[in-house]
UniProtKB/TrEMBL annotation:
SUPFAM superfamilies: CoA-transferase family III (CaiB/BaiF). This is Putative acyl-CoA transferase/carnitine dehydratase. It holds the Pfam family CoA_transf_3. It comes from the Bacteria. One of its GO terms (molecular function) is CoA-transferase activity. Keywords: Transferase.
């Protein structure tokens, strides 16, 4: 069904003028003035846009009508009567505007709205992969908005940036990226223990941070030169980039790096030790000066347990003396409660830390005085919630939460009216045909 009065305006996106940002949200943070269109779901693309939104960018999260981002329903879920929302959505969905739109250029109304939004935005973030199949190309968008920054997020990268096309077309989630990017092979304990994936979607979060980095670089270039561009962020490469010297070891030394568990392979102490009160303490002492402070903390003879003989290399820590030192350290920690051991080590400036739980951090005076936990109203359940705050902290242009995570489509009408100039009647017509 096509409603009269809608399609006759097709093509007016060509006359759309950019409305300065922010037009809907408050002004705050270093990124005020930037507007971001985000057509992504789950974690990487939404988290990248969340970071931008926390620092002042006006972010429009495009979601499918009547469905929304699957992240909204991901367990664990907070329930209040008939209202349900994911804990993850509460944390990561805040500060964004929710617009429902069925993105498909075969639908003229969809094309009209999408291209009008592109003209109004500085950045488009997507993890849809199949954009060309929907009729969307980089060439088209950069002709419409020459300063546009296009951020592609995928598991294996976009073929126009290189790679095997069939590999680029592979589906992916966080653990797949950890596995295929080489990270999972190094995470965990040696064989026969299997490789282990890191919890909390660390691949998605790293991918998101590389995305933010790329966006800010490309945006800076566009503001200086008027030239937009596309950037390509692959989950596998985000993981590979964080593998330290793994590839240099392979190419220059012919060594395949292996899993080592919690123990650092090239110096000691560098391990997680169990305490008397059933907690865990991580001790790290890189370099001779710190090493000898550790030896003093354990009341050992530095002339016997020299850095060269017991602490400075893989050969040293696996020598008879090095293994003896590890045993002594294990026994020393096991005889003490975590806090006692920590304070003694810190008194001698030996880097150490107790392995903390979320409950520990929630009760931490340091975290509280750092302002790491903030409260705001979640739009779905209509209650004040408490969540983690911001990183990094900024002295002059701090981040803020101006609103909790939105209800699906909460801002559709105001976006279409304020940015694109549609009337209430036109918006109703779009809704009737299922475009929004």
């Amino acid at each position: 069904m096509i409603v009269k009065g809608v399609r006759k305006h097709m093509g007016r996106w060509k006359e759309i003028e950019r409305i300065s940002a922010p037009a809907i949200i408050p002004k705050y943070g270093p990124l005020t003035g930037m507007r971001v269109l985000m057509t992504g779901s789950i974690v990487a693309a939404p988290f990248a846009s969340s970071i931008l939104a926390e620092y002042g960018a006006e972010v429009i999260h495009v979601e499918r009508p009547n469905m929304g981002d699957p992240y909204r329903a991901q367990a664990p879920v907070i329930e209040r009567g008939d209202k349900r929302v994911s804990a993850g959505w509460i944390q990561e969905g805040r500060n964004k505007l929710s617009l429902t739109l069925e993105i498909n250029f075969k639908i003229p109304e969809s094309k009209e709205i999408f291209l009008s939004l592109i003209k109004n935005c500085d950045v488009w973030v997507e993890n849809m992969v199949w954009t060309e199949k929907l009729g969307i190309t980089e060439k088209m968008l950069l002709e419409i908005n020459p300063k546009l920054v296009i951020a592609h997020i995928s598991g294996f990268g976009r073929p126009q940036f290189g790679g095997v096309p069939s590999e680029c077309d592979r589906p992916s989630y966080d653990p797949i990226g950890q596995a295929e990017g080489g990270y999972m092979y190094l995470n965990g304990f040696p064989e026969p223990s299997p490789p282990s994936h890191a919890a909390t979607f660390i691949n998605d979060y790293l991918t998101a941070m590389f995305t933010v980095n790329g966006i800010l670089m490309a945006y800076t270039h566009a503001q200086k030169t008027g030239q937009g561009q596309a950037i390509d962020i692959a989950q596998i490469e985000a993981m590979s980039k964080c593998l330290n010297d793994t590839f240099v070891q392979y190419f220059q030394l012919g060594k395949v790096r292996e899993r080592k568990g919690n123990k650092v392979a090239i110096f000691q102490p560098g391990n997680v030790f169990k305490t008397k009160d059933e907690k865990y303490l991580n001790i790290g002492a890189f370099g001779a000066a710190v090493y000898y402070r550790f030896i003093k903390a354990l009341d050992l003879d530095p002339k016997v347990y020299t850095y060269e003989a017991a602490g400075c290399s893989a050969e040293a820590i696996n020598s008879e003396l090095g293994l003896e030192l590890d045993r002594i350290a294990t026994e020393w920690v096991a005889a003490r409660e975590a806090e006692e051991a920590l304070q003694h080590l810190l008194s001698l400036k030996v880097p150490s830390g107790i392995v903390r739980t979320s409950a520990d951090l929630a009760a931490s005076e340091h975290y509280q005085k750092r302002g790491n936990f903030i409260e705001y109203k979640d739009e779905t359940i209509g209650e004040t919630v408490k969540a983690f705050g911001f990183c990094p902290k900024m002295s002059e242009t701090p981040a803020q939460v101006w609103r909790g995570a939105p209800i699906l489509g909460q801002d559709t009408d105001v976006i279409l009216k304020t940015l694109l100039g549609y009337t209430p009647g036109e918006i109703s017509s779009f809704r009737e045909i299922g475009v929004i």
